Amino acid sequence: MSYYLGIEVKQLDGGIFIFQERYAREIIKKFKIINSNPVTTPTEVGIKLSKYEEGDVDPSYFKSLIGSLRYLACTRLYILFNVGLMSQFMGSFTMTHLKVAKRILRYLKGTLDCGLFYSPSKEFKLEGCCDSDWAGDVNDRKSASGYVFFVGNTAFTWSSKKQPIVILSTCDL
User: Fold this and answer.
1) pTM here?
2) pLDDT (tens digit per residue) in 29-61
3) Please, which residues have CB within 8 angstroms of residue 60's CB and are 6 or more apart in sequence?
4) How does strand 2-4 pair with strand 15-19?
5) Do the Cβ atoms of 87 and 51 come closer than 8 Å?
6) Are the C-beta atoms of residues 94 and 139 closer than 8 Å to each other?
7) What one-character DSSP code corresponds to residue 126?
């Protein structure tokens, strides 16, 4: 097994497993989540965050937490959207934002052994999925969207981002 910059690579008979268990344990310890209970989802369903909430948070602590999560998201696609959402508040964050970011850590605590598994396949089948939250940002009404594409069962590209403009409608009435 190789360990380079927090990314671990394990060669198995059926393929290659890329993960960051050691790094995830380090950030769970660094941000004092060791004694917290794991949760089953990275964020609460339907949560809407605003930049106009009250509360004070240590800027270096919050930025370090989000930076650590951004690095961890390279092998954990299922937190990519949530980490991107929290990254939007790097300029103005509150205790609510910190609680949401710590929930992502609590989710990671329960999924330490997850990662990306790349295996050879005789079937060349291209599949993709995409989704959007349709004006989900309560501050500027912009949409966030994301996609992931697979060849066989191997994810090879993915993205999650906030759209640069507000779309009013796709049809005329």
Assistant:
1) 0.77
2) 999 998 999 999 998 887 777 777 777 788 889
3) none
4) unpaired
5) no
6) no
7) E
